[in-house]
Design brief:
Elements lengths: L5 H14 L24 H4 L9 E14 L2 E8 L8 E4 L3 E8 L8 E3 L23 E7 L4 E6 L11 E7 L10 E10 L4 H10 L11 H11 L1 H14 L15 E4 L8 E4 L6 E7 L6 E4 L5 E6 L2 E8 L1 E4 L4 E6 L7 E7 L5 E7 L19 H4 L120 E4 L15 E3 L36 E10 L4 E4 L10 E4 L3 E8 L5 E5 L4 E3 L9 E2 L1 E4 L4 E7 L4 E7 L2 H6 L2 E7 L1 H5 L2
Helix pairs in contact: 4-5
Length: 683
């Protein structure tokens, strides 16, 4: 039986009070820390990006363990310069940075500058790029600042990231922003637990759903029987039992132990930022949590996304976006009314939220929306082959074995058909799409696309699938950047139905070792899909397929090599890895300096994984032609296949890992070595 602590009940009460708008008077009950005094969190002033004239930056960062008031209680945290979260660091493109870290702990520490391009010796990963910083020792990270945008920094030692050692980092451009703002705020999201992180890991190892208080009950079973019948319900339960997961396993660690913070502030107090009506405001949103995906929205106010992972993108107007662990988004908002707006960062599993307010005057508050219903995983997330009547639209093998006759279509016309763009269409009446190239297309005949059936076709504009993305197809014919963003081509019928992107491959033989209990029979292109829990909301939601870099690709060479990695896991035993091999047993991934690489990530698990590559940006093949967006962290959806391009132009040893802290600690981690070819001759 799981234990619900008094502290947990107290946190839930505070969240409930926030949801009713009963915030007045609670501020006085909060500790001084939460009011911006003493060991202060990122207050409204500290979250304000100051800017100023370009200049070199020289800073001292003192790392200490201290007793702090945080999240409605007292805990032991790791501070930088007596602050949790750590202070905002502002740098300037084209200048130099000298960041001196002084370790006052009784254990080793480190700081990784997440997303920055720098010499690998400065990257801050113990055992990979440097030894770490021993107790009483110091380390200077000195490097030229080569980019601009929104980034963050955090420890890469043990579980220190979970207990406070995270901070925002803003790099100002050498030239003025294309889109100017009157005011800029950092919005940094964290998850905080009063438990020792190693205790959290031990509990996950002994019972992977320890923190999940939303598992299915007997009542849920009989409700499903009433809705779907005995046969469908039993088949559904058996399928999930075989996978040793629950459709409600959305997050490993939840609000049962976490309090979600915005700029260090408890949701009952909330962070506060001020504005003047008619101002243009840039919000730099950073997910600096250890394990939590957030769905971010501002009820009553549209957002225009102008940056992703530090890189400028073509503006996309939206009402909500999902931000994976370690991702960043820049958004522009233009509040015109003399009223307050709530910043709502809801955990993906709906177990809690981080909260803030933008207002013309201090103390103003807007209504706090209630938590939405928890989402559930579906058969799509399981990667199940539902071709025997349970899958609406295209059959599970829909992209295999397409004959020449059934594939007489202009692939160039399929670019940009994202986020359900074909949903609701009469599949028998597609005449006129791409000059009639899809007319008479028999979707039942698309099973089993053989090697020769697509030879001679023009695949040049089928962006997003990558050479490794359509196994069984003839890859000799050109650029297979395959059909990214064609979300919604056929949802899952039956229980847990949802629109899903096209099947791009079937799983090859082999289960990737004991570290993998799941095998996604079918892999989908899911870049055009909304994030988990946002599938049916009645407003606009950002998808990866919409991101478009403002600059064209610098390296237009075709990739000379494809590296395919499977994201693998055993939820029952809490084992996570690449290709079923944990980090301690894995060999480095060697890449010749200067090579152009296609990296294909296949998620064989039923959970999202934010995959981060240090030292280099990856270009996401999402259907945007020569304007592929740069990503340093990519959230890979369950049972999906994503393709990225990489120019290996940064020599050194680079970490490559899942940014879910406990997954990384369990073994989902590799080292990427980039060096001249001759360096590998002697290996």
């Amino acid at each position: 039986m799981k234990h619900r602590s008094i502290d947990n009940d107290r946190r839930r009460l505070l969240i409930a009070l926030a949801g009713t708008g009963a915030l007045a008077g609670l501020e006085s009950l909060l500790p001084s820390y939460a009011r911006g005094e003493a060991l202060s969190s990122q207050s409204g002033v500290a979250a304000l990006v100051a800017g100023g004239s370009p200049r070199p930056v020289s800073l001292d960062l003192d790392v200490r363990r201290e007793r702090v008031a945080i999240a409605g209680g007292l805990g032991s945290g790791i501070t930088i310069n007596r602050s949790i979260p750590a202070p905002l660091i502002e740098l300037w493109e084209g200048q130099t940075a000298r960041l001196r870290i002084h370790n006052h702990l009784d254990e080793d520490t480190s700081i990784h500058w997440h997303g920055l391009l720098l010499p690998f010796e400065m990257d801050g990963v113990p055992g990979v790029s440097f030894p770490g910083i021993a107790p009483g020792e110091s380390f200077e990270a000195a490097f030229p600042v080569r980019q601009s945008g929104t980034y963050w920094y955090h420890s890469h030692s043990g579980m220190q990231e979970q207990i406070g050692l995270t901070g925002p980092l803003v790099v100002h451009p050498a030239a003025p922003h294309r889109i100017q703002a009157d005011r800029e705020y950092v919005i940094m999201l964290n998850d905080w637990t009063f438990e020792d992180p190693h205790r959290v890991m031990a509990r996950l190892k002994s019972q992977s759903d320890y923190y999940n208080y939303n598992e299915r009950t007997a009542g849920d079973f009989f409700e499903a029987v009433e809705k779907h019948g005995w046969k469908a319900t039993l088949q559904d339960r058996l399928a999930w039992n075989n996978m040793r997961m629950s459709p409600r396993d959305i997050a490993d660690v939840t609000g049962s132990t976490y309090t979600y913070l915005m700029n260090g502030r408890h949701p009952a107090a909330g962070w506060e930022g001020l504005f003047q009506p008619e101002e243009r405001i840039r919000l730099r949103v950073i997910n600096a949590s250890a394990m939590t995906y957030f769905n971010f929205r501002i009820p009553g106010l549209a957002m225009t996304v102008v940056g992703a992972d530090g890189e400028e993108v073509e503006p996309v107007e939206t009402d909500e976006f999902q931000i994976g662990v370690a991702e960043t988004y820049d958004v522009i908002i233009e509040p015109r009314a003399d009223t307050a707006y709530t910043l709502m960062a809801e955990s993906m599993d709906r177990s809690g939220f981080a909260l803030g307010t933008l207002a013309p005057r201090a103390g103003m508050r807007a209504a706090v929306p209630p938590l939405r219903e928890p989402p559930q995983r579906t058969m799509v997330d399981m990667g199940m082959d539902m071709s025997h009547g349970a899958m609406g639209g295209m059959a599970a093998g829909e992209m295999s074995g397409m004959s020449d006759g059934s594939m007489s279509m202009n692939h160039g016309s399929m670019n940009g058909m994202s986020d359900g763009g074909m949903s609701g269409m009469n599949h028998g009446s597609r005449n006129g799409m791409g000059d009639g190239n899809m007319s008479g297309m028999n979707h039942g005949s698309m099973n089993g696309m053989n090697d020769g059936s697509m030879s001679g076709r023009n695949h040049g504009s089928m962006n997003g699938m990558g050479a490794g993305s359509m196994s069984g197809m003839n890859h000799a014919g050109g650029n297979h950047n395959a059909m990214a963003g064609m979300g919604g081509m056929g949802g899952m019928g039956g229980m847990g139905a949802e629109d899903a992107g096209p099947v791009v491959s079937r799983h090859e033989q082999g289960g990737h070792g004991p570290g993998n209990i799941n095998v996604a029979e079918l892999q989908r292109n899911r870049l055009g899909e909304r994030g988990t829990g946002l599938e049916t909301v009645d407003h606009r939601v950002l998808t990866y397929s919409q991101l478009r870099n403002i600059k064209p690709m610098r390296d237009r060479r075709p990739p000379s090599r494809t590296i395919e990695l499977h994201l693998t896991g055993n939820m029952d035993r809490y084992m996570w890895s690449f290709d079923g091999v944990k980090y301690s047993d894995a060999e480095p991934i060697d890449i010749v300096l200067g090579d152009r690489i296609r990296l294909v990530l296949v998620n064989d698990t039923m959970m999202e994984h934010p995959i981060h590559l240090h030292g280099m940006f990856m270009e996401l093949e999402n259907g945007q032609g020569e304007h592929l967006p740069f990503k340093h962290t990519l959230s890979v959806l369950p049972a999906s296949r994503a393709s990225l391009l990489l120019t290996a132009d940064e020599p050194g040893r680079w970490a490559f890992h899942c940014h879910l802290l406990y997954h990384m600690d369990a073994g989902m981690f590799r080292v990427v070595r980039v060096a001249p070819a001759e360096a590998f001759d002697n290996v």
